[in-house]
Structures are given as structure tokens and as C-alpha cells.
Amino acid sequence: MKVIFHPRFYEIYTSDPAADPGRMEPVVKALEKDFEFVEPGPALERDLQRVHGRSHIQKVKGDPLVYEIGCLAAGGAILAAEMAFEGQAAFGLIRPPGHHAGPDSCWGFCYFNNIAVAVKKLMSEEKTKNALILDFDLHYGDGTAKTFSGSQSVSYFHPEGTQREEFLERVKQCLRTENPFDIVAISAGFDRHEEDWGGLLKTEDYFTIGKWAKEVSLKRCQGRRFAVLEGGYNPSVLGTNVSSLLQGLRE
Ligand SMILES: [Zn+2]
What is the pLDDT of residue 101? Predict the structure, then answer.
């Protein structure tokens, strides 16, 4: 399993919790001993255009630094998806996050919808016909849902639950969908952790979710699976939480 990362994700491209200084360093530290890192190139404008309208892209371009890092994040998601398609599980350790970015607008620290750009790229190349997107971030990925609303090809799931066991049961139900999919894409937000904003999940739960996602991908779609970072704002636990997910998700 490979980790997609670019040193420019260390840059403080704006002032919000996703762009906080010191957020990426502990994750890199937690993963670099176990995983090989690969550097992505930036997404091209035509990649963004499969999800976003021209005026939205122009608006983001108004801040050249955000645009550059945003294109690298989307490029990281694309590379993770391409590796997954080739049979190598991958994790995009990227920022800014993307699931609140829709076709014509964005909020919640997001600019471009990384996972949607990646899935649409595979679909445009006819590598993937159907995708399952599991988003276990604390927050509903309205941008992803909007991008694929009415789509027969992409199923978007955002499990909810106020109790830990209940939440995990919902995750399991999502993965049991009868909707067709030939790749599993995960919007991995860690802000539901007990020491993060949501105050619910334990570190080992991310291992469990990763393992379930791996198992369902092996059963249903030749093991094709990738995840990208969304939320997660406590740097003192983010590294171990990401590592836990990846240990479950890997071979
Ligand atoms: Zn979130």
C-alpha cells in the first residue's frame, strides 16, 4: 500500500483548521516507517472541470497559492485512484480536503472535491463504471453528494450515529450495499474520534473500518480501494488514527 504525499502539503495555504501548521507532520511521521511515499503531480484544469463549473474554478484561482495546493491535492486523489485501479491500495495524504466542494461552490475548508475528481477521471477513461464512496468524516460531504446526486453509477454513503457501536454498524450496512461498484473510494475524515470534534470513535475503530473496506473490495471489485484524507483536527492523534485505518486497509 502506497501513501500519496507532496511536501507542499506542509504549506500554510490559508488560515483554517485543515491548513493549520503542524497538522501533516505527525501523520507523515506515523506513516513513513511502514509505507512507501509517492509524490503526485497537480490535477489538470480539465480534471477539475469534470466536477466543477468554470466560475468556481476561476474563483479558486483568485488565490494562486490555494489553487496550486488544491490542484496538487486533487492530483493526489487521482493518483491514489489510479493505483487502486491497477490493484495497489493507496491513501492520499492530501490537503485541502474536498468533500464540501460541489460543482459551483465550496465551504468547510474545501476548494476542489478531490475524491469526486478522482472517481470522475477513472470513469472518463472507462476504467470504472460504478463506484462506492464511503465518507466516514464527522460532517456530511454535501459537495460529493451534490456532484453525484441522481447518478446511477456512484453511490455516496455517509453513515451517522450518536453511539459508537451504532455508527460502526451503519458503516457495515453501507458496505453491504447491493448497488454495483467496481472500486471502493473512502473519504477518510478523522474528526469523529474521541479526542477530536465528534468525540465518538476510538483509534482501533479506524482499523476495523479499513479492514471491512478491504474485505468488501476483495469480494466485490478485485481489491480496488483507496482513501483520501478529509477532516481530522487534533494533530496529537491524527497520525495514529490514519495509521490505524491504513493497517486495516492494507493487504
Ligand atoms: Zn469533517
Answer: 98
Quote the CA–CA distance of 36 and 59 in Å, as a whole number: 35
Helix (H/G/I), strand (E/B), else coil: 238: helix
Residues with CB under 5 Å of ion ligand 1 are 137-139, 189, 191, 231
Q: For residue 251, what pLDDT is reported? A: 72
pLDDT digit string, tens, across residues 39-54: 999 999 999 999 999 9
Helix, strand, or coil here: 225?
Answer: strand
Give me ligand 1 centre to Cα 126, in Å: 31
CA of 230 to the centre of ligand 1 (A): 7
Quote the ligand 1 centre to 240 CA distance (angstroms).
Answer: 17
Burial call 84-108: b when 16+ CB within 10 Å, e when fewer: bbeebbbbbbbbbbbbbbbeebbeb
**Cα of 8 to ligand 1 centre, how many Å?**
22
Quick check: helix, strand or coil at residue 52?
Answer: coil
Q: Which residues contact 13 (CB under 8 A, 6 or more apart)?
A: 19, 65, 66, 69, 96
- Ligand 1 centroid to residue 73 C-alpha, Å: 17
